[in-house]
Amino acid sequence: MTDVVVITGGSRGIGAATAVLFARRGWAVCVGYRTSAAAALEVVAACEEIGAGAVAAPLDVASAESVASFFVMADTLGPISALVNNAGIVDRRSRVDEMSAPRLQRMFSVNSVGPFLCAGEAVRRMSTRYGGAGGAIVNVSSAASRLGSPGQYVDYAASKGAIDTMTLGLAREVASEGIRVNAVRPGLIETGIHATGGEPDRVQRLEHEIPMQRGGRSDEVANAIAWLCSAEASYVTGALVDVSGGR
To answer: Is this prediction's pTM over 0.70?
Structure first.
C-alpha cells in the first residue's frame, strides 16, 4: 500500500519542495493551498510526472470546516501516513507596540491554531486509539521561535514558539499510539515568504549573520522533513531540528 502524506501550504517554497521529494520516494501527496491553485496544480503535475499519485485541494488552516474538508479530500488517496504542518504567514516589520489586534489574531490563527486543527484531523486517522496504523507529524516551526525576532515580528516568533511547545506535548501524548511528532526550525531560507512580508531581499541582507554565510534552500529543509517521516527516524519523537546554517 502506498504511503500518503498531507502537506499544508504545499504550493510553493518548502511545501512544494517537500511534496516533490516525497513523490520521488514513492509517496502519494495531498497538496493544500490557500489561494494559488495554479501553483498547487503545477506541484501536482510535477509529482504525477514522477509517477506518484497527487491531488491539490483548497485549505484555510484557520477554519475548522476547511481543514475537515481538506482531509476528506486527502482520504481519497488512501490511509494517511504523515502530516507536514507547513502553512504559515509573516507580516511587515513592526514593533509589538505598533501591532494591531487583527494582525495578531490572524498571525496566531494561521500559524498556531491551524496546525492544531490539522494535527487533530491527522491523529484521528493515524492513531491506533482510533484504529489507525500510526504515522508521523512534522511541524514547520522557525528559528525565530528561539531568537524572538525583536524589531521585526515578535508575533511571528511567538506563534512559532507555540508550535515548538505543541510539538513537545503532542509527541508525548500520542507516542504510545504509534504517532511520532517532530518539528523542523528553518532559518533564513530562500523562499517567497520574505516578499510577502515586504522584504524580498531579507536573506541576502542578513546572510552575513549566518555562520555558514549563506541562506538555505527549500530542498534542504524538505530533506530533514522527509527523514523525520521515514523509518530511519523510527525512534525520534519530540525533537526540534534546526535547519538554520548554525544561526
So the answer is: yes
